[in-house]
Amino acid sequence: MPPPNHPPQPLRANEEAVLRALGRMLVSLPRLIEADMVRDGQLPLSEYRPLMCLSEAPDRRMRMSDLAAACTISLSGMTRLVTRLERRGLVQRVRCNEDARGWNAVLTDFGLDRVRQAWPTHLASVRRHIFDHLDLHEVDELGATLRKVAR
């Protein structure tokens, strides 16, 4: 952060280029993966992500608030999404054992089957749109850089 009474410094050309490329990637990458998944008749990315999180969670269950945070959406948005998934038999909502006020989303067997069906398409899309463009060293560098910025 600049010291008080000093105007912020403009971005250098390379910083501006990184910022713009990052912005394009943040918008285009989810759209590309979503298009691949829908084209192949799989789950849309917005549904795949929470179902994948649940498939990896202990007992295939997570508090609704934790699932929302893991998917970086609001709790109200997650509630609407889980309601849709519940209607289709992919998840169930159950009261938390530890806290009668809270709710867990639980992945059903049918939901797990759908995640398993969608996984190969998701994997192929992620490889094609990201990792096929990087060598192993670049993957390690990018991972380290993203973790550093995220902190």
The gist of it:
The protein contains six helices and three strands; from the N terminus they run H-H-E-H-H-E-E-H-H. It is mainly alpha-helical and 151 residues long. 19% of the residues are buried.
Structural key phrases:
globular, mainly alpha, 3 strands, 151 residues
Topology:
Blueprint: H1 13-39, H2 45-56, E1 61-63, H3 64-70, H4 75-87, E2 91-95, E3 103-107, H5 109-129, H6 136-150
Antiparallel strand pairs: 1-3, 2-3
Helix pairs in contact: 1-5, 2-5, 3-4
Give an account of the 3D structure.
It is a single chain. This protein is about 65% helix and about 10% strand. The protein is mostly helical and about 150 residues long. The longest helix has 27 residues, at about 15-40.
Structural class: mainly alpha
Number of helices: 6
The percent range for helix content is 55-70%
Spell out the helices and strands N to C: HHEHHEEHH
What gyration radius follows from the Cα positions, in whole Å?
Answer: 19 Å
Distance between the termini: 16 Å
Question: Low-confidence spans: pLDDT under 50, at least 5 residues?
Answer: none
